[in-house]
Prior knowledge:
With 683 residues, the chain is an alpha+beta fold.
Amino acid sequence: MTKAKKWLGQALRQALLALPLCLFFALTLTLFAATQMVCDNQEEFWFTWAQMAPGVVRVGLWVWGALTLLLAVLPRRAFPWGQGVLLGLGVAALLQGNGLNADYGALNGQAIAWGEYTVYGLINTALWAGILFICLSLRQWKRFGALCVVLPCLLAVGEGGWIAYRAAQAPTPQTETYLSQAGLYTVGTEENLLVLVLDSVDADQFAQALAEDPDLSRRLEGFTWYRNAMGLSDPTKYGLPALLTGQAYTQPVDYAGFIAAAYADAPLYTMLAGDVWDARFFTDSRYVSLDAGVVDNLAREELAVNDPAGLTRDLLRLCAFRYAPHFLKPQLWMYSNVFLPYAQAQGEPVYEVTDPAFDARLREEGLEATVERAFRLIHLTGMHPPYTMDADCQYQAQGVTAQEQMRGCLRLAEDYLEQLRALGVYDRSAVLILADHGTETVHRPLLLLKRPGDTGEMAVNDAPVSYADLPATYVALLTGAQAGAELWSIPQGQARTRLYYHESSRNNAFNLYEYSTQALSPSWEELIPTGRVFHGDSLEAAAPYTLGETLYFDLRATARPYLVSGFSSADFHSTWTVGESGRISLPLARLPRSDTLTVEMKFLSIMGGSQRLRVDCGGQTVFEGTVTDYTLRFSFPASLVQDQTLTLDFTYPDAISHLKAGLSEDTRQVAFAVTELTVLDGV
């Protein structure tokens, strides 16, 4: 046998042995990760599983083939090393993406303070190194080759079954109603109410820009700056509806219900209904009521992917951020709101918030007066991180400073105003330049207003106005009728109570805190909590619990409806207990058939490594001891169930804050980070 044939035979044998391992690795980091990302967060993505799967599958097949080829051509003695490395990395990545990640918050463009995760990063690196070390050490075991075939086969089959299950449940592409770009660069010939929303620009940022460029006051001809304006709510999801309707999300309904109710009674929508005004809203479709009787840039058709390769690339990068070890995540960090540009409609394109492109089109082709009366709401990126627009409104991939981005925001607004002057409609147009909320001073956004006919250098008004005053302002600007509640009607120097609603939630737990102040120019510390907290529909009565069902305390938050007290809101992978006691109440779908019930709880973390715990049910203590293991299991008589409801009272007297333990600035008094709870009918 020639050396070539011998080498080829060895390569084929190694390729066959490597196929299951390489399949598991490729499947985990492509289709499994992408299915998990899309199906668990379908409300955040406009595309469906069926639309993303083909591109991801192609990448997965390429990775599978490339890795198999790489292992096939390794020298015979190096082959076990390659198997060990790939097995270790695959298992570590699977664990990382499904339980080992820290809570980095939402990928909303806001920079992550990586320095706060140093200790976690060291522990995470040690875990990866440990898994890799174990897998490499096992190569000396005589059954290591079989392990590298059997274990990946089992894992791949499990992942494949899970993918098939989630894919079967995933929605299919449907006809969507969306806000198109039609009419974005048009205005009215006779009357205009034009609202430019510069996302996240606060009053202090504008004040700094004004100090750096005093001539700005002259260029903002006819405008009044409401220097002490207070917004109504944040973030954008709640702030933008608030600035259009004057209402905060205080109703006990889901978000769609809030949008429907807020706009149903909104004076702005009432005034714009009918054919008198051509009304177009350029923002995310979720933030407004898609009422065909009001909104003139509605389009309805199935959205397709215009760049499958680009969508696949960004989706897999998002998955890689989840599955990579901690110290690789800064290189993989991304703004998760990158997928809308991949949406393609057969007719008018979907509106995208792209400031540099908007300004470039303004400069090149200008505006066009096509209707008699026009209302336009144009939602732009403004000062929302990441900062990538320079002072000349040009995109800079390497990023820019906050000051330069602010200059770019103002340049964009001025370019729009200049086009109004060029058309000869500036003087008879009402223009609002405002933000949905601020950045540093989140409750004090920028608010500039020019009424028709106003002239002269920019004026400053120190009245304690609020975004709750905007509905009356819209009515006055649209009809000329004034009721004394408009922005310009609020007296300066007069004490006034203003409310603000700040969202402070994690993942599936919704908490909107109400604050009140009479301060003229309030700092955050001058906002006084009223004690009222709103939860949307998150506190609806829990569905009956079926014995044997596993409740999850992670992003899925299926345990949330049953947590009566003593638990924080859900983090990415767990929910911390808070305080020294808590209660879980489970209304049962049926009474137990066995004489005994068994509770199994799983923990992601135990504060200090051990915690004393007592569990009471029906007036009796059913467990008491020191918990050190990450799985707790105990049984008790089923007769303790009362009124077909199982109530478990937890006491953890050793709870301590991360701040007191010297671990972080978190002041919550915590004991256990819970991941799962199951109640079994029997032992």
